[in-house]
Amino acid sequence: MADGEAVADPHWESKEGHYRVRLDNNWVDVPDEAVITEPNRAGPDDGLADSIFDEQISIRCFQAG
User: Fold this and answer.
1) For residues 29 and 35, is the Cβ–Cβ distance under 8 A?
2) What is the full DSSP assignment across 26-38?
3) 58 Cβ partners below 8 Å, 6+ apart?
4) Is 10 helix (H, G, I), strand (E, B) or coil?
């Protein structure tokens, strides 16, 4: 199952140059290659994490808010 969801500020953070998000009450490291650095054309928003849930959480893409 794949799903994208908005991630509000308290549920994502940058630490030591890397991002992590909180999904299902667990902090998950965002792989560097999953970070989207181009501006959101839909306007400013919270962060967005697209994840895969299959026994574990895997972040496919992330855009900081």
Assistant:
1) no
2) EEEEPPGGGB--S
3) 51, 52
4) helix
| φ, ψ of residue 43 in degrees (nearest 5) | 105, 175
Secondary structure of residue 51 in the 3-state scheme: strand
pLDDT tens digit sequence for 1-47: 445 666 776 788 898 889 988 887 888 898 998 888 887 666 555 55
* Cβ count near 19 (within 10 Å): 22
CA atoms of 65 and 49, how far apart (whole Å): 10
pTM listed for this prediction: 0.67
